[in-house]
Design goal:
The protein has about 120 residues and is mainly beta. It contains 1 helix and 11 strands.
Length: about 120
């Protein structure tokens, strides 16, 4: 990693993808896409996710039913950990959830592991 570009974890229908800032991800029903979704309200090529240099960007690539954030139809929007985008329907479409990778916010995870590896006192 390095470069200070935050990885992002995408969760959709119980599947997760760790997004790599070096490439773009295509979301839709197209089986050749990166994030494939079987839902009639989702377009063949619905949206793309990519690192925009300052933040992650979700772009609706001309889908029929749209992409929604907080009930508003969006064409392109900055997203990050905690973002939820609804695909194809503002209230009950498939939810694209974004979060930080596990451990990203806890740089001391290694020290915690080594502490757990020590036998308890008096063992």
């Amino acid at each position: 990693m390095g470069h200070g570009v935050p990885e992002l974890v995408l969760e959709l229908n119980g599947q997760t993808w760790t997004l790599d800032p070096a490439r773009a991800y295509r979301v839709g029903r197209d089986p050749q896409g990166d994030v494939v979704l079987e839902d009639a309200r989702v377009s063949w090529r619905h949206a793309s996710l990519r690192w925009g240099g300052r933040s992650w960007l979700l772009e609706d690539v001309g889908s029929t039913n749209g992409s929604y954030v907080e009930g508003q139809r969006v064409h392109q929007i900055e997203v990050g950990p905690g973002s939820v985008v609804y695909l194809g329907n503002a209230t009950d479409g498939p939810q694209l959830r974004l979060s930080a990778p596990a451990g990203a916010a806890a740089p001391d995870v290694y020290s915690a592991q080594t502490a757990m590896a020590q036998p308890p006192p008096g063992a």
